[in-house]
Structure formats: structure tokens, C-alpha cells
Write a structure and sequence with these properties.
mainly beta; Jelly Rolls
Length: 279
């Protein structure tokens, strides 16, 4: 098969306090998001979010059902968000064709039966995706970067000057629970999501990209008074539980995609952790 989804169970925060580096990485880090001519990813027990990558290099890739879903087709009871981090390429959804450029998003609603990802005409198509359970169908929608709801946050003085591009968010796109967007850090800024926060009513996943090959990001996670870190490279992702902060600092500026699933569609539903209180 050209689709391979692995299951990740949900560790308790008390257990994570005792994780050594390799165990922490095994539970929360996705090191190989893109595998050539494959759809690959992780089925997380946190809000049942599926996180992964689609890399149609030499052949189109069809979204097939996987064992974890016990469904006749992948989106029988699910919705899906896709953001292209490679070259422009097409996605067909039940015969409707969408040409998705880099940093553009595509929302695919519950009930889509035939979804096919096509190779790029030039270069490589790299589709990062999140998929969450859905209770009703909503229209498919292609969202361009210029159409995103934008927030400019932070400053160069605090090393966190960034633009948040909300791509798959209500009311721009109707979804059941999935939200996605991408954040671009300005040159000279390295911190994302600082001050940090948690949101007990939903989980989140981060995917880092546009990070130079020789550079890295230290991603911070854990309860605000029990933080841990993961060293992350370009095109790697991290699962963030509801009880965990999610923040990072890189050795250069970079971009990252955030995706959320859970209790509600209120983007601002978060509990801030003061920088002075972090441990």
C-alpha cells in the first residue's frame, strides 16, 4: 500500500515527567513526515487527530482507508486540511480539481470518497495534512495565502516578530472541529508562541518548514512548571497534548504550520502561561 499510518497512544503528564530524550521523541516527534510516493503519518489518541505528509513524486497517490478508522473510505467520518509546503500541484476531490500553490490550503469535508494527490509539474509536491473526526459534511474549499486572516504579533526586540496566517478557521472556512494555519517568523526573530499557553479543550500539532538544512528549532513542551524540549529539523512535526505548552526557538527564522482539534472552534480559547512562571 502507498498509505501507512502508525498509532501513537496518549501518555499521562505524570509519566512524561520521567521520559528520557528517546522516549519523549518516540511519543511526540514525527521525524519522517514525507516519504517519497507515500502517504504517511500518525494517528494520535489525543483528539483522534491524524498528522502526516503526502509526497506524490512519480505517481498520483489516492487517499485509501486505513485500519485505525474501520471505515469504507478515509473521509467517511472525517474532515481533512492540507497545506502545500512544496511546489504547486493538484488535488482532485471526487473529480473536482484544485491547483494548490505553496503555502495555500485545501479543506476537504466529510464524505469525500475519492481524493487523489498529483505530482508537481516542476519540482516536488509536499502536502502536509491534519485530519479530525467530523459529524457532518461541509463544502470543500481552497484557501489562498492572500485570503488568510492575518495577525502580526511580537517584535524584533523580543525576538518573536511574526505573522500568523489563519487559513482553515471559522468563519473563513466551515469545519466541524479542525483548524489550521501557518506562522511566518520575520528575519531576526526566532521565538514562536511566546508567551506560551495551553488549551485543555483541544490538542495541537506543529510542523516546522522553511528551516535551512543546517539549522534547528528547540521545541518546548510539557506542563508549564514541568517543561521539556525536543530538537527539531526541517519538515518534522510534533504532537502537543492539551496539557502541554507548545513553543519554540530556532537557530534562524523559519515557518511552521499549526493544526488544532477538540472541543470548540474558538481560536482564542487558551490559558496563558506567564513567561516568568515557566520552569
Amino acid at each position: 500500500m502507498t498509505i501507512h499510518i502508525r498509532t501513537r497512544h496518549a501518555p499521562h503528564p505524570d509519566d512524561v515527567k520521567h521520559h528520557e530524550t528517546e522516549k519523549l521523541r518516540a511519543h511526540f516527534l514525527l521525524e519522517n513526515v514525507f516519504e517519497k510516493d507515500k502517504i504517511s503519518g500518525v494517528y494520535s489518541a489525543f483528539d483522534r487527530l491524524i498528522v502526516g505528509g503526502i509526497f506524490p513524486s512519480s505517481t498520483p497517490l489516492k487517499l485509501e482507508p486505513v485500519e485505525q478508522l474501520k471505515a469504507d473510505y478515509f473521509l467517511e467520518r472525517r474532515e481533512m486540511g492540507i497545506i502545500n509546503v512544496g511546489n504547486a500541484a493538484s488535488v482532485s476531490v471526487d473529480g473536482e480539481l484544485f491547483l494548490v500553490q505553496k503555502k495555500e490550503a485545501l479543506y476537504i469535508g466529510k464524505g469525500a470518497k475519492e481524493v487523489v494527490f498529483h505530482p508537481a509539474a516542476s519540482g516536488e509536491a509536499l502536502f502536509y495534512f491534519n485530519s479530525a473526526p467530523a459529524h457532518r459534511p461541509y463544502p470543500h474549499k481552497h484557501i489562498r495565502l492572500a485570503e488568510a486572516e492575518k495577525m502580526e504579533l511580537g517584535s524584533l526586540e523580543t525576538s518573536n516578530h511574526r505573522v500568523v496566517n489563519k487559513l482553515i478557521v471559522y468563519p473563513l472556512v466551515e469545519t466541524c472541529q479542525l483548524q489550521m494555519g501557518l506562522t511566518e517568523l520575520k528575519t531576526g526573530s526566532v521565538w514562536n508562541t511566546m508567551p506560551a499557553h495551553v488549551h485543555d479543550r483541544r490538542m495541537e500539532a506543529y510542523f516546522y518548514f522553511d528551516l535551512p538544512e543546517e539549522q534547528v528549532v528547540a521545541h518546548f513542551m510539557g506542563e508549564p512548571q514541568e517543561t521539556r524540549h525536543l530538537w527539531i529539523r526541517n519538515h518534522q512535526a510534533v504532537i502537543s497534548p492539551p496539557w502541554s505548552i507548545h513553543s519554540g526557538a530556532g537557530t534562524s527564522n523559519y515557518s511552521f504550520i499549526w493544526g488544532m482539534a477538540g472541543e470548540n472552534l474558538d481560536y482564542g480559547d487558551m490559558d496563558a502561561a506567564l513567561t516568568s512562571d515557566l520552569r
